[in-house]
Amino acid sequence: MVRDMELLEHHTRTAQAVLQRMRGRAMLCDEVGLGKTIEAGLILCELMMRGLVRRVLVLTPPSLIEQWQGEMRRKFSIELTTHDDPAFRESLRRSGAAAWGMHERLIASFHTAKRSPHREAILDQAWDVVIIDEAHHMRNSRTQLWKFASQLSKRFTLLLTATPVQNNLEELFNLVTLLEPGLLSTSKSFQRRFVDRRDKLTPRNVDELHELLAEVMVRNRRSTVGLEFTRRYARTEQLAPREDERRLYEYVTELVRRQLNQPERGLSRMALLSLQAQMGSSAEAAAPTLRKLAGHEELSAEVRAQLHGLADEAGRVNGNVKADRLLELLDELDDKLVVFTQFRGTQEMLQERLMGAGIEAAVFHGGLGRLEKERQIALFERQTRVLLTTDSGSEGRNLQFCNAICNFDLPWNPMRIEQRIGRLSRIGQARDVHVINLVAAGTVEAAILHLLEAKLAMFEMVIGEIDMVLGNLDEETDFADVVADLWGASSGLDDFAHRMEQLGDRLVAAKRAYAEQQAIDDRIFADRFRPEP
């Protein structure tokens, strides 16, 4: 059942400890990047193979739903259904909230699950196992989210968090109580027995506390599992667009912002933001969308004429400054290169440009069948220097035999950028990984990249740490939606840059909070709770 991954000793030790000693109820507190999701998948697989689990509920922040679905599908052959899946929506339409009882393995965001009518329907079900990722969101027992989790009917429970404590030891009590009510007695008794009166983050009777926690807690650390990650080196090349590229970008951007700010606009927010992102990639990516949107009859004749005109102008754009630079890079680099783009139009344009330059490329995207996908990866490994891949096509593919990546365009969500880099910068990579970001000056993507580099030093962080930082923002929406809201509300690029600067200040504070959480957890737990060999 397990495939497409390298199982490490601490993964199997953790799964064995949880299954044998903790009876399937555990808090997985590994440091970021060590594979808590893999450990949870191993435990879930074994419980299913033993016939102990049929009904599964996974709860995560909204930004991690796709990642969980992909990891479980590819590595463990487990399909998780989201409340957004067409099959689930059809069940909702026909049966209402009873749909939550009609699917055996479900995944939902915290914010969906805790809201009516989903909350009541989920609580009405008996779950064999509940897995909660980023469980530190449930450290406060006074929140609606903690109360919801505490009421779930469940046989087995896995809580995943790299930072179980932030403000006080009561948070640790609250998480453990979700797993094993009564293990740490009552809140008052816990405070009296285990918490220093002068400092709510300093434990008393440490050996006794650790002995109790060992019944439900596993914590692997990079320093104790002997796992070394190679370094990442990133460089950004901000390129001045050609005059026709710049003019088209400005015209489309003005139309998008105007439509976003119209109360009764004829185009959906999703379509408009997709168009804006396509413009940050290439005219070839945007042209089909412009033509499609021009066909919307509910739009005014004036807007439709504008869209038709912009589509024609996109078709006349001659060349792409980033594609020109990519060809130069291939002359400069001696090794293989993975080139990521979000859009098939851009991918096709790049394939044509490479062919024209006599460069053969493997081409990978979600529309390929399984056998063709395998053939293209093998072609890249054994023969070609370049892999042109989309985000959807690349998920789950391990490309450690290559150590250079080019982001031809940039998703607005940094976690998607991390997922790209994670295809190369992962366990099994023997060389340092080089990341090249190509971005056109004066674009949304340029502002986002400036924020991620200048404020976060994102490319120097361990894979997975950006998730923790974004989680500390306490936003109920995806980071890309936060950026989109700022973009739609801004009066122009200068105003947008100012708003992004303010968001950057919040990110810096969130990163600082994450570092403080790490230090606190190291002090409280040290090297205890490693699963025994």
Comma- or semicolon-separated keywords:
alpha/beta, 24 helices, globular, 13 strands, 7-stranded parallel β-sheet, single chain
Summarize the structure.
This protein has 533 residues and is an alpha/beta fold.
Q: How would you sum up this structure, described in words?
A:
50% of the residues lie in helices and 13% in strands. It is built from 24 helices and 13 strands. The strands form 2 sheets. The chain has a 7-stranded parallel sheet with strand order 3-4-2-5-6-1-7, with helices on both faces. The model has no long low-confidence stretch (mean pLDDT 90).
Write the layout of secondary structure elements.
Blueprint: H1 9-20, E1 25-28, H2 36-49, E2 56-60, H3 65-76, E3 81-82, H4 86-95, E4 105-109, H5 110-113, H6 118-123, E5 126-132, H7 144-151, E6 153-160, H8 170-179, H9 187-194, H10 206-213, E7 217-218, H11 222-225, E8 232-239, H12 243-260, H13 269-279, H14 283-294, H15 301-316, H16 321-332, E9 337-341, H17 344-356, E10 361-364, H18 370-382, E11 386-390, H19 391-394, E12 404-407, H20 414-421, E13 433-440, H21 444-455, H22 465-471, H23 479-489, H24 493-525
Parallel strand pairs: 1-6, 1-7, 2-4, 2-5, 3-4, 5-6, 8-13, 9-11, 9-12, 10-11, 12-13
